[in-house]
Amino acid sequence: GDSVTQMEGPVTLSEEAFLTINCTYTATGYPSLFWYVQYPGEGLQLLLKATKADDKGSNKGFEATYRKETTSFHLEKGSVQVSDSAVYFCALIMWGAGSYQLTFGKGTKLSVIP
Amino acid sequence: IAGITQAPTSQILAAGRRMTLRCTQDMRHNAMYWYRQDLGLGLRLIHYSNTAGTTGKGEVPDGYSVSRANTDDFPLTLASAVPSQTSVYFCASSVTPSANTEAFFGQGTRLTVV
Q1: Which chain B residues are Cβ-neighbours of A45 within 8 angstroms?
Q2: Residue A86 CB neighbours (<10 A)
Q3: What mean pLDDT comes out for the span B17-29?
Q4: Taking 80 as the threshold, does the pLDDT of residue A95 lie above it?
Q5: What is the Cα–Cα distance from A76 to A90, expressed in whole angstroms?
Q6: Distance from CA of B100 to the nearest CA of A (A)
């Protein structure tokens, strides 16, 4: 079935470092792809999304490009800040059991130190 | 502020007891979801509802039931709690159950079954 695999954490970076969190997917067809972020003690919120191949989603300095040829949607940011410390989830929407369902990777915890 | 409200925020529950987690949204979204979040496993879908009056099973439905009597409310019931149901539970909603719709999440309910 459809699934999402993302790099395991935790990831610890110094402030202003470059961030990459890898995400690959397995799906029949061409799903929409998402990155959600969960700040400490909060629910998830959408960070960015891409709905078709070669689309680039961007928000708050984060970017991810939908690569059909490598079935990937890697998250990048050029210069992280302490406030970016959170858990990041890659996700796709798949059709299953009679409905569209949002399927998540296991999450990658990012800690940014001053 | 519009959004999703979950209650309680946290709960310690004796095994074998019945418990209902409440979820209310004021965005008039058609679709609602319940996820559980466990360390190392990410978020897994328990049950969903595409519209008021209908519900469906997700990836891990055993031991849980839901109802959707109206658009705003989507309670999750544990009929007889077991320790393996210790988790953080998130309610979510989306405008429609479609292939590229953003999901909005509540703040979560931390449940401990002892």
Answers
A1: 104-105
A2: 21
A3: 96
A4: no
A5: 12
A6: 5
Looking at residue B66, its amino acid is V
Q: Report the DSSP beta bridge partners of residue A71.
A: none
Task: Taking the CA atoms of A25, A80, A65 and B31 in sequence, report the sign of the dihedral they define.
Answer: positive
pLDDT of residue B1: 60
Q: Are B55 and B68 in contact (CB under 8 A)?
A: yes
Rounded to an integer, the average pLDDT of A67-74 is 95
pLDDT for residue A100: 80
User: What's the average model confidence in pLDDT over B1-28?
Assistant: 94
Of residues B42, B45, B48, nearest to A105 (C-beta) = B42
- From chain A, pick out residues whose CB is under 8 angstroms from the CB of B68: none
Would you say A105 and A91 are in contact if contact means Cβ atoms under 8 Å apart? yes
Do A102 and B108 make contact, defined as CB atoms within 8 angstroms? Answer: no
Q: What is the pLDDT of residue B40?
A: 84
**What is the Rg, in whole angstroms, of the alpha carbon atoms belonging to chain B?**
13
Distance CA A54, CA A33 (A): 11
d(C-alpha B90, C-alpha B110), whole Å: 9
Selection from A47, A18, A29, A17 nearest residue A107 by Cα: A47
Q: Which of these, A110, A86, A82, lies nearest to A12 by C-alpha position?
A: A110
